[in-house]
């Protein structure tokens, strides 16, 4: 019995390690792209500039097109940018239910994109809330710029529920 358990444990580790490797914080060394000037006049408007800046700095990590119906992780992140476009604070406002290995990866991507556009005129700092939508391949979209999500295939449970429901009169 020990042989089977050991073999199974080895198999599971062999499958899990490559999956976690995609969220490794070691990114290819390259200079961050310069921050574009923000046209935003409020923190809410700055959210778009911050998201675009992240996309420009990590094009190889962006999921192109509709996201799959089931995501690997969803995380809420609040980032504070100082007067010089530097990240002064990263706060996780919603942790993923299961895939917590993405949190240091997200923080690394945010910091690697410095400097950000400076805050709007009249503000010393800007706080920007974002929802990270991450697929199994390690690519992401930010809710601010998301292209949407594919529909999940219909399940047998949905069809059974429809059969039990009263007619709608249509």
What does this structure look like?
By secondary structure, the protein is α+β, with helices and mostly antiparallel strands. It has a domain at 40-63 and 71-147. 32% of the residues lie in helices and 17% in strands. The chain is built from four helices and four strands. Strands 2-1-3-4 form a four-stranded antiparallel β-sheet. The radius of gyration is 21 Å and the shape is globular. The model has no long low-confidence stretch (mean pLDDT 83).
Main sheet: which strands, in order across? 2-1-3-4
Helicity, in percent?
A: 25-40%
- Apparent shape: globular
Number of helices: 4
Q: Structural class per helix/strand content?
A: alpha+beta
The major sheet is characterized as:
4 strands, antiparallel
State Rg: 21 Å
Q: Count of DSSP E strands?
A: 4
Secondary-structure element pattern, one letter each: HHEEHEEH
Distance between the termini: 60 Å
Q: Which regions contain 5 or more consecutive residues with pLDDT less than 50?
A: none
Average pLDDT for all residues: 83
Strand content: 15-25%
């Amino acid at each position: 019995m020990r042989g089977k358990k050991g073999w199974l444990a080895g198999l599971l580790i062999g499958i899990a390690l490559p999956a976690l490797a995609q969220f490794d914080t070691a990114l290819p060394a390259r200079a961050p792209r310069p921050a574009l000037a923000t046209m935003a006049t409020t923190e809410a408007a700055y959210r778009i500039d911050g998201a675009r800046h992240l996309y420009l700095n990590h094009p190889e990590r962006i999921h192109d097109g509709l996201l799959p119906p089931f995501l690997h992780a969803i995380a809420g992140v609040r980032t504070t940018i100082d007067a010089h476009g530097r990240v002064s604070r990263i706060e996780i406002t919603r942790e993923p239910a299961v895939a917590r290995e993405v949190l240091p990866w997200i923080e690394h991507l945010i910091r690697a994109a410095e400097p950000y556009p400076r805050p709007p005129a009249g503000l010393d700092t800007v706080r920007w809330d974002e929802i990270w939508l991450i697929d199994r391949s390690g690519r992401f979209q930010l809710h601010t710029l998301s292209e949407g999500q594919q529909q999940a295939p219909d399940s047998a449970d949905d069809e059974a529920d429809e059969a039990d429901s009263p007619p709608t009169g249509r």
